[in-house]
């Protein structure tokens, strides 16, 4: 069966068998049974236990095969060593979905991992979907059912949540009950032996009961699949993720700039960004965001109205908005006039609107509704501080009423204070209005709401450009390098590969003697550059391995000898293949374009300010390959050099399209050739619009044979 169809059954089964059900309190099999019964599951419940009899009022069966009717889903809570047998029985019984709660698999080591693979294989072969093992279970508040051993069931809501950590889920569940936040689905992923985060995100995307996807993950199983699924789902609903744990650095040598500048988490960050997924930086933030997204409409833009009864908090909120890319709306004339008429003369009627410490509930209603009506305002933040005359609870009530009248605009409340605010906050929460203790968190959550709108619109369904390339020649070069038992390509080889993909390079020729160098220089035309050619010398200028601007045969000869001598002196062990003779390129803006490889996500492309100061400037940004032209464009815009290239202070703009092409060609090259583990072009000179680019230093490292 198709996985997504299987998940549909899992989300809404007509019958559930609990294999390992128990009548004894304190056993997981008892918790699962009780949760299932208490959750009001309307379908058939079949406890399975070798002792048979009756469990919590339901007839128990010795084995799943003993059940006469069909079983849609089986929850498995038995010791690990029996799981495989039981999964096979489920296959025979034609069970469609498995939830394996049992622990003791991959997480305990090699043997467990093997057992887990075997179970997943059986499930796969028989078209069963499978959650876990080593998970808490699954809850659907709409079906409804709770097929987990959680303490309590979340309230019904619209947030779909999948988590790689069961313990964290129980924490969130408990918190959500206190905060009155509802969930639609609550899925514990466990070891992800079969169903992974991408499968669930895809299902959440189709699920009419879910409007918001929340994810806690430590790793992604299949980077490409994850990105493809997320790109589609974010068009319909936001995806927020908390990602913890440091990813494996993978095949990353520290020799290239790209390799050393990409942090261990860069690929994840990039993947999220590139597929429209928002990343929460802390659990607290994730909670705030969940709070705001639950039931809220999205803002059409970034114009915010602030309403307050005290000056200080209004200013703090204004600052926070500005720091988060939100703007303080200029209120329309109507609004200003209305407020001027109705509020006391001392009140501030421009944004932030200060209704003064004496503000009564009706003043708040007036201001809130005026702001919600104003078409120049995209969202509203209402701040209340407990002053002598403040009626906190009534104020909360009128805000709820105002929201009901104008439900389409996001409305967030900040009720600053302690004891006096406890009850008003409940009123707001129950009225569907997210409420915060302090302005900064409210602003941050609102900014995330707006950021989602931007993310969604930035992920375009655009094709990957395909350039003509001489892949055969690239294969040959790689083969030659392997035969020479090298990993690092010589400059001439790396440049040749770049040329096969149409990347403009300064022509380069290897010379093994001074005479040959002058011959090659004649061939290329003066002036030329000489560079040491050795796989052991990565940073050539550091050891005096470069001479630029050579104009005569005599200069070339002298430079040849000097470079070789410098290399021998500074790196006596380096194997020297000769000296590369290269065309002198006209100077332009120095760029770095590179690639390193991530285990989960594949080729990670870097772009930024190039030259010898890359490590200090760190003006760089990343995207995962393959890339679209929009990806390339955004990648460039993320850096400061990207802005310079567009032309500033009267300078003519650079050849942006040619730079994008170069990035995209590299993206295609490293996608086609997995054996390229690292690639660095530093620098490539960028010229004025229409004059293209020229790569003068191309470095490539290949991995071992597969
Ligand atoms: P490395 O990075 O190994 O030290 P490069 O080949 O990048 O060596 O050369 C160092 C610097 O020399 C470059 O940043 C560039 O400014 C200059 N350079 C190198 N090759 C050329 C060339 N063909 N034309 C003009 N300038 C060059
Ligand atoms: Mg260089």
3D structure, described in words:
This protein is of the alpha/beta class. The chain folds into 4 domains: 3-245, 3-Layer(aba) Sandwich (Rossmann fold), CATH 3.40.50; 295-458, Succinyl-CoA synthetase domains (Rossmann fold); 485-583, 2-Layer Sandwich (Dna Ligase, domain 1), CATH 3.30.1490.20; 589-702, ATP-grasp fold, B domain (D-amino Acid Aminotransferase, Chain A, domain 1). 40% of the residues lie in helices and 21% in strands. The chain is built from 24 helices and 30 strands. Strands 9-8-11-10-12-13-14 form a 7-stranded mixed β-sheet, sandwiched between helices. Strands 15, 16, 17, 18, 19 and 20 form a 6-stranded parallel β-sheet that branches. β3 and β4 (58-59) form a beta hairpin. α12 runs antiparallel to α13, α19 (514-524) crosses α20 and α22 (629-637) crosses α24. It is flat and about 95 Å long. The two termini are 33 Å apart. Residues 247-254 have low confidence and may be disordered.
